[in-house]
Structure formats: C-alpha cells, structure tokens
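hiii, so i know i said id send this last week but things got crazy w the move. better late than never?? heres the sequnce for the chain we talked about at the cafe, plus the structure i predicted for it. fair warning i was half asleep when i ran it
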Amino acid sequence: MIEVWVEFVRGVPTRAKAEVTNYSAAKPDFYRIYRFEQATDVVRSTITGVDRLTNLRIRAIGPKPSPLFDGSEQLISVTSIPYYSRSIYLPAM
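okay and structure toks below
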C-alpha cells in the first residue's frame, strides 16, 4: 500500500487539448483516435522554482513498496490535474 497526503495552495490551471492516433501492432490498418482535454496546475517544480506545496506525506507499507521509499528519494514535481476528459473514436468501416 502507498498512501499519499498532499495539501497545496491552488493556482490557475493551464488547459490543453490533444489528439493521438494509436495503431494496432497486430492489425496495422486498425487504429483508435483519442481526443482529450485537461487542466494542469504545477504545484511544485524544482526546475521552474514553483513551490505552493504546504504539506506532503508519503507512507509505504509492504515488502515491495517500502524499499522504494527509504528516505533517500527526492521530490521533483507535483502536478494537480483537476480536470481530464477523454473521448475514444473508432474509424468508420
């Protein structure tokens, strides 16, 4: 089990739209179109110097996740995604 507790001061989210076409490896003539729209709010970033994080706790319990969180890890970024919408389209056959 991994438990994450995050508190932060909200910022203005950035909206983005994208479209991705994924082709099948088994049938190259078959594909799906994924269209998504999302909003992202970078709460903490070591590269840009943004830090609106007020509280962070990470707790790992169990034989597999515990060694990953031994205290030597470094937090690089925290991003809030308050809105995500995805539509999947199939080609007309």
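btw The chain has one domain: 2-89. thought thatd interest u
miss u guys!!
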